[in-house]
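Reminder: ligand-aware prediction takes two inputs, not one.
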Amino acid sequence: MKLTGIEFRRVRMPLVAPFRTSFATETTKEVLLLRVVTDEGEGWGECVAMAEPRYSSEYLDGCADVLRRFFLPALAGRDVTAAGVAPVLEPFRGHRMGKAALEMAVLDAELRARGVSLAANLGADRERVPCGVSVGIMDSIPELLDAVDGYLDTGYQRIKLKIQPGWDVEPVRAVRERFGDDVLLQVDANTAYTLADTRQLAKLDAFGLLLVEQPLDEEDVLGHAELARHLETPICLDESITSARAAAAAIAMGACRIVNIKPGRVGGYLEAKRVHDVCAAHGVAVWCGGMLETGLGRAANLAIAALPGCTLPGDTSASDRYFRTDITAPFVLQGGFLPVPATPGIGVEPLPDALAEFTTGTEFVSL
Ligand code: NPQ
Ligand code: MG
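Here is what comes back for the chain with magnesium ion:
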């Protein structure tokens, strides 16, 4: 298909409550949406970078710039396929979240034109997936217990606690004491520790956690392999896994027994599927992470979460975990599950009124 134009749309959505991690406290979710216009129809992409480069080096204005300056000119005037986007952009280093957003939009347009759902296209084998929820760092343990209580009541099948030095063993102990050993429980440090914290992290072994996610720096894959020798709790990598090749290397090094898949972080849904395949081939469990996506990215993530190797509940929470109003029809938790969209493309589209309400700016680029 031929790209004839692309709309850049900045969206700002208030969060239902502040979301605190070891790297930031967020009260609103800033988003860059792409709407590609092609000779065969339109498609939507969502860029998951934050407004500031705190989770990774990418940030929204930087993504918009690299898209405008380099990625769109590289695709303009060509016959494009979704599978062809990454190869055409390959000469440009990094900027995976920017690439992922563009590939997602082309993929949506292409699959819609072909009448195929993203889930079917990727090889998903389930119509619904069990869902977990990520719980931010709180000001106090009672506040945390209230939040976890609410999520368990809502039906979430797995709880992930955000941790950092000073907020790790005690919140985990409190959740175990209050809700028992049967709750599927894991923690995510977002790189907040070093190997000098090995003894502190080993204290988490007493609580039967499913995994500890990305305790060390993004670049310290070897450090995770060393840490793994001192922990019983399986290490799961998030930030460090930037490609299928990085996943293969981390597995070979013994740095992780589990992998969090985020399509934006690895450069797109097609590379995310390859991460899944590499992990499955090595018997490494995977699950789909989340970046506080709108209904668009949430829909596409559910296709990843429905892949056969995604054997753990992911961070694919319902829309109302983050937003009072989503820009698509909301994803609603049903008995702890979300339905995997089965209609062509990513399977959802923005609701015009909601989209307009949260849009802070648009720009159309003709190609
Ligand atoms: C993680 N997500 O697994 C990320 C971290 C994260 C659901 O825990 C704006 C954009 C805010 C991206 C907050 C979850 C964010 C963000 C947290 C990503 O590490
Ligand atoms: Mg994480």
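Residues 3-115+349-366 form a domain with the Enolase-like; domain 1 fold (CATH 3.30.390.10). The mean pLDDT is 98. We will return to this case in the review session.
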